Amino acid sequence: MDYWDYLGWPDRFAQARFTKRQRQISRVNRSRTIYTPQLVLQGQDFRRHGHLQNAVEQINQTPARAQIALKATPTTGALNIVAEANVASATLRRDASVFIALYENHLQSDVNAGENTGHTLRHQFVVRKWIGPLALNPQGRLTWSQSIALATDWKMQDVGVVACVLNARTGDILQAVALSLND
Predict the structure, then answer these.
(1) Rg (Cα) of the chain, in Å, rounded?
(2) Highest-scoring range by mean pLDDT, 16-25, 28-37, 105-114, 148-157
(3) Which CATH number fits domain 63-183: 2.40.50.140, 2.40.50.1070, 2.60.40.10, 3.40.30.10?
């Protein structure tokens, strides 16, 4: 998020649209607070980090309410992505949107100012590109493809793709899938 940049050490991975998304999630939760590191689970601010594993296991036992197929093909300097989504329930599809994220692992930042001066921060699952919302058609389907150019400093072996279908009104995730190019 770019809201800490005023402290003298701008986050090189921050984007204003990430802060905007975090503020939207805050509005859904009727909260006036956004913070780092904030964790949102099923559209809700999740502050019980000690219970995260149990919460995720419980979510994973819940049947998906959307179907997603995701394919990523690396080419020289780009990633060709094809995503298909389907929300069968007419009630659920009314507020459903699809999002695609490209992420990168094994990154680091040397901090030169602020509370972490002199430290090296190591980063995993850094969102490099956020695409969406993508709308479903009236039948609740989406077929989307795009070739995304990768910046020259991205390491293809550490890049992955995530697709999710979420309820835009509540933030509830109907389904999410991840695809690592390193597998």
Answers:
(1) 17
(2) 148-157
(3) 2.60.40.10
